[in-house]
Structures are given as structure tokens and as C-alpha cells.
Design brief:
The chain has about 300 residues and is mainly α. About 65% of the residues lie in helices and about 0% in strands. Helix 2 (about 40-50) packs parallel to helix 12 and helix 5 (about 85-95) packs antiparallel against helix 6 (about 100-115).
């Protein structure tokens, strides 16, 4: 089973009609509200976790030699990709990254770009400029440098970094999540992309049943892959800290329970799923989340 899916759901006339109909049922008892459509993708994801298939694939993705999951970008995550870059040039680049002052750093990067002999080195400078522009909140400059990076001839896994930075620049949450899913599809060992995808999915990219299903599946699969990459439980600490700032609801309970499950705290995971279930309402989105929380609650109980 793939770590993430980029399957796009089109909004049909029927879906619009259902949405309008649902709006007229808000004041009706829960048992009179039309149930959400069957969550086939979510059920499939839960079954893959129950069977161990999801963990097996995640472990296979994490077992590539010399991968440094928490490093970014790709030339650091996979050091072998930088073999063609001159060592002296790499030392110069390292000096530029720790230079104080943006003007000094930019000048050093310009010199490095002029002396770069391979596209991998030029790409790394482009990415450094993207990072500088993001820190300065200069979106147009970041997009321009990202376009330069996309024109370089680099290993395919580096395209994951380009999708990741494009996600950081996206103004629409659903678009950002789709770009992060693309990054993870290209490089399943990309910790930062997985972490951010898990969080944005838990925050939610839409309230309709289909988008809630996409979010739930991405939450499950992202954390399973993170669990396979993590060498120690403390690597989940940053994700946990960010999660604590999000509202406690069915979405965040699914993510919290998954993190607890991956770190071996199964009883706490079950409690998180149960708390999430108690917070759900009658909406179609909550119906999808109920499927996810109940499924993972059952899966975690089976693992006792």
C-alpha cells in the first residue's frame, strides 16, 4: 500500500446536491441524518495496518542504505547523491550556511553558484536561496529560486524537496497537503514532509466526507512511515509539541493515537481514540472520522 495517495476527487453535481441536502438536516436528530458514503480508502488503510502490510512497506522504504531521514534537503538526506560535487565546494557551502547576516550569506552563495560545475551543486544553492527567501517572507523571490531549482538536472528524489517547498509557499491548505503527499510519494524517507503532512491532515483540508477521508488516510499512513524511520521515540517530540497546539477533536485524536501507538503506548493510544470518538458529531466528516477511530481502536486492541 502506498504511503500516501494523490488521488484527486472531482466534485460532481450529485455531491453538490448531497451537500445542500445535508445543510437542511443540521437540526434533525442524529439517526435521521443521512450516513456518509462508504470510506473504502480509509477501510483499506486500516486493514493494511491490521495485517502488518502497511508496516512492512514502511520498513522497506526506510531501509535504503545511508539514508538520513531527518536531514534536508535530498543531498543531505542521501549523501551519496553529492558524490559528484567537489569537496572544496561543499566546504565553502557549509561556511555559507553558517555565515552571519543575510547580505554576507547571499554574496557567498552567489560566488558558489558561479563556481559550481555540476547541476547538483547549483540546485543546492537554489534551495539555499529558497530557504533564505522563506525566512524573509519573500514569496516571489522564493518562487523564482524554486523555478530555477526545477530546471536543474538532479536525481529524481530531489524533486520531493521541490514539492515540499512549493507546499510551504501554497496559500491553500488542500493544495499544500497535495504537494506534501507528492513529496512523500517521491521520497517516502522524507521526515519533514511526512511530519508536515500528518499535521496538516490532522488540521483538516476540507469538511466534506471525501476530503475528510483523504485527510484520515494521510494521517494514518504518514505516522506509520514516520514510525518506521524513527530510530528512537524522542524523534516524535517535535510533532507532539505542535499537535498540542491544535484543537482537541476527532481529527487530532486520530493523529495523537497513531503517534502513541507507534511509540508503544497502546493503552494511551486507545484512550486517545476513545476521547476522539466522544467528541464527534453528526456530520458526514465526523462519520468518516468515526470509521477511522473505531478501526484503529479495534486494531490496537487486537495487538494486545
Amino acid at each position: 500500500m502506498a504511503v500516501t495517495r494523490t488521488k484527486l476527487y472531482s466534485v460532481t453535481l450529485g455531491a453538490l446536491v448531497l451537500g445542500l441536502a445535508a445543510a437542511t438536516l443540521l437540526d434533525l436528530p442524529v439517526d435521521l441524518v443521512e450516513p456518509p458514503p462508504e470510506s473504502d480508502e480509509l477501510i483499506e488503510a486500516i486493514e493494511a495496518i491490521k495485517s502488518g502490510e502497511a508496516e512492512d512497506e514502511a520498513k522497506a522504504n526506510a531501509q535504503e542504505p545511508n539514508v538520513v531521514p531527518m536531514a534536508s534537503p535530498c543531498l543531505m538526506r542521501r549523501p551519496r547523491l553529492a558524490v559528484g560535487v567537489d569537496r572544496a565546494w561543499r566546504h565553502g557551502f557549509a561556511a555559507a550556511t553558517i555565515a552571519t547576516g543575510t547580505t554576507t550569506r547571499a554574496a557567498m552563495l552567489d560566488d558558489l553558484m558561479a563556481s559550481a560545475h555540476v547541476d547538483a551543486a547549483r540546485w543546492r544553492v537554489d534551495v539555499a536561496f529558497v530557504e533564505m527567501a522563506l525566512r524573509a517572507d519573500e514569496k516571489e523571490a522564493a518562487l523564482a529560486h524554486l523555478a530555477n531549482a526545477a530546471d536543474r538536472d538532479v536525481p529524481p528524489s530531489c524533486r520531493a524537496d521541490e514539492a515540499f517547498f512549493a507546499a510551504l509557499l501554497a496559500t491553500d491548505r488542500a493544495e499544500a497537503a497535495a504537494l506534501l503527499a507528492r513529496a512523500v510519494e517521491i521520497d517516502p524517507a522524507f521526515w519533514s514532509a511526512l511530519e508536515r503532512l500528518a499535521l496538516i491532515s490532522a488540521e483538516g483540508t476540507g469538511e466534506d466526507a471525501q476530503q475528510c477521508e483523504i485527510d484520515a488516510v494521510r494521517t494514518l499512513e504518514s505516522v506509520v512511515q514516520l514510525g518506521a524511520l524513527a530510530e528512537k521515540d524522542t524523534q516524535f517530540q517535535r510533532l507532539n509539541r505542535t499537535l498540542e497546539a491544535l484543537p482537541a477533536n476527532g481529527r487530532t485524536a486520530l493523529l495523537r493515537g497513531m503517534i502513541l501507538r507507534q511509540t508503544g503506548e497502546r493503552e494511551a493510544a486507545r484512550a486517545a481514540y476513545q476521547q476522539g470518538l466522544a467528541a464527534l458529531g453528526p456530520s458526514h466528516c465526523d462519520g468518516v472520522l468515526r470509521t477511522g477511530l473505531n478501526g484503529m481502536l479495534a486494531a490496537t486492541e487486537d495487538e494486545q
